[in-house]
Amino acid sequence: MPNAINTNKNRPSRTRLIRVGLILILIALASLTGYQIYRRQNPYQVQVFSTPSGWGYDILNHGNLFIHQPTIPGQSGMVGFSSQEQAQRVGERVIEKIQQTKALPTLTNEELRQLGVKIP
Questions:
Q1: To the nearest whole percent, how much of the chain has pLDDT over 90?
Q2: Which residues cross the membrane (predicted)?
Q3: In sequence order, which residues have a C-beta less than 8 Å from that of residue 91 and are 6 or more positions away?
Q4: Are the C-beta atoms of residues 80 and 45 closer than 8 Å to each other?
């Protein structure tokens, strides 16, 4: 039958359908993984800044100012941190406390000393 029409010519092969299905599944899994990683990112960030009396830090929540701390917390006067690293460490500890308690944190003098801050 040389004049017979090949009906399989216009239908996709089974192998091609499986391949397309697997590619769609992989794309869906990659998108889901990316979304999960994005959701787990910490919404809080520390930004350290210089002050006339030393260093301070800001805590940002989703890029918006949440806490502005130009001085050593709980200390009288306008005494800033003596180094950028100290301000960074204390800011990171504040973020940890926010995430644990979901409230505005307080730091004791002992906690500040453990973070390397010299209390005046």
A1: 54
A2: 20-38
A3: 46, 47, 48, 57, 58, 59, 69
A4: no
Burial of 35 (0-12, 13-18, 19+ CB in 10 A): exposed
Length of the chain equals 120
CA distance 18 to 30: 18
Helices (H), 2-102: 14-40, 84-101
Residue 5 has pLDDT above 60, yes or no: no
Rounded CA separation 84/49 (Å): 8
Question: Among all chains, which residue has been given the structure tokens 């239908």?
Answer: 11
In angstroms, the CA 98 to CA 43 distance is 11
CB 112 within 8 A of CB 71: no
